[in-house]
Amino acid sequence: MQLKTYSPCAALKPYIKTFMIIESEAGMVNRILPEASLVMAFRFSGSIKYTQQNESGVLPLSVISGLRKSPRIMDYAQKTSILLVKFNEGGATAFFREPLHELFETSISLDDLFPRHELILIEEQLAEAHNHAARISIIERFLLSKAKLPSADRLVNYAVQKIKSGNGLVRIQELLADLPTSRDPFEKKFRRIVGTSPKQFSALVRMRHVIDTYRSSHSLTHTAHAAGYFDQAHFIKDFKSFTGETPHVFFKSSKFW
Predict the structure, then answer these.
(1) Weakest mean pLDDT among 24-28, 123-127, 137-141, 249-253
(2) Of 170, 16, 186, 178, nearest to 90 (Cα)?
(3) SS (H, E, C) 103-162
(4) Which domains does the chain have, with CATH numbers?
């Protein structure tokens, strides 16, 4: 398996975190953990099967995936390649009119959002491109042609940064205390722009922080307390829901991204 990342052009940096190209010559099975941003994918060779909770199927050629709170297993066939577009939190609203919380825990074909003839052209260009730099340029041109590029919502952006800087441990009441708005309109706007509620977004940020900063020298009790849990049982339950495995098994053997 080869994995390469690319930075977006200057015009797209406010909206896109990174481009990623994954190539699997021999085939592989990988665990995809939930994260705090939406992902769009363009498969330009091979095929990919996915399994998530009680759902399974074949990934469409062009697809967008909403935020999730549970892991997804991806089964790459031999000679499979895919290009991922990883959006900044709230960045996808520059390209989609649909409320993004409607994509939570699901993936839909881009056929449902863009004209099919445009996607056919993009898919053909990706398959025929001679290198990855050319593929990135194809997707950048496509995104720029679709972008509304609105000014960022200051309230939602502030809340996202506050939650991230607090590693997901910020309470909603604390956010609202700093914002000139009430809870109901704020939460509706947050869901539409970010793709889930502030509470669920905080939970995603918190668990990703646990995983990204884990050290084998730390005890499970230390890890749970650092993540704001008062007891191991609750922590283990949430961790298993997030990763599909207990902390002990996950940190010992899991491969993921």
Answers:
(1) 249-253
(2) 16
(3) HCCCEEEHHHCCCHHHHHHHHHHHHHCCCHHHHHHHHHHHHHHHCCCCCCCHHHHHHHHH
(4) 2-146 (2.60.120.10), 154-253 (1.10.10.60)
Q: How confident is the model at residue 151 (pLDDT cuts 50, 70, 90)?
A: low
Q: How wide is the angle at C-alpha 235 spanned by C-alphas 234 and 238, nearest 5°?
A: 85
In which order are the strands placed within the sheet that holds 16-24?
2-6, 16-24, 80-87, 39-45, 62-65, 107-109
Least confident of 70-74, 120-124, 176-180, 185-189: 176-180
Q: How far apart are the first and last CA of the chain?
A: 13
For residue 255, the model assigns a pLDDT of: 59
| Separation of alpha carbons 55 and 105, rounded Å | 11
